[in-house]
Write a structure and sequence with these properties.
4 strands
């Protein structure tokens, strides 16, 4: 563990900062440091537990952040629950998705394909630089 991260955790344990503040500081440290062997890009295969979406952008001249961490177990449960949805409801949902410009077929989402999906998510890192911010999607 690097000294800066340890210092943040020490401040947290001493009650000098909140867990939210500690999280923001650690996130800022991760963004400021170049990728290392411990980064999500080179994490040992099969260890991912979360899908992470991080976005920083300007809105009305103010810097805004989005930081979402979704447990992969929730994705697994969602796919298994989707298998219980009646085909007529899936057809209607697909029609609404298509009408909204999202060409996604929910009938193709099967629990038996979930292992491969999670495996591919585990290997995926998406980084997008925009003129007013950036987006990063990865597993950790």
């Amino acid at each position: 563990m690097n000294e800066q991260r340890k210092g943040i955790l020490d401040l947290l344990s001493e009650g000098k900062i909140t867990t939210d503040e500690a999280g923001r500081l650690i996130d800022a440290l991760e963004r400021a440091q170049p990728p290392t062997a411990a980064s999500p890009a080179v994490r040992p295969k099969g260890k991912a537990k979360y899908l992470r979406v991080m976005m920083e952008f300007l809105e009305n001249g103010e810097s805004e952040r989005l930081n979402v961490r979704v447990p992969l177990q929730l994705l697994r449960a969602g796919v298994q629950l989707a298998a219980l949805v009646p085909p007529q409801a899936l057809d209607r949902a697909n029609a609404e998705l298509s009408r909204s410009g999202v060409p996604f077929d929910l009938t193709q989402l099967k629990p038996e394909h979930l292992g491969a999906l999670v495996e591919h998510l585990d290997e995926t890192i998406v980084e997008l630089e925009l003129h007013d911010g950036h987006l990063r999607v990865f597993c950790e």
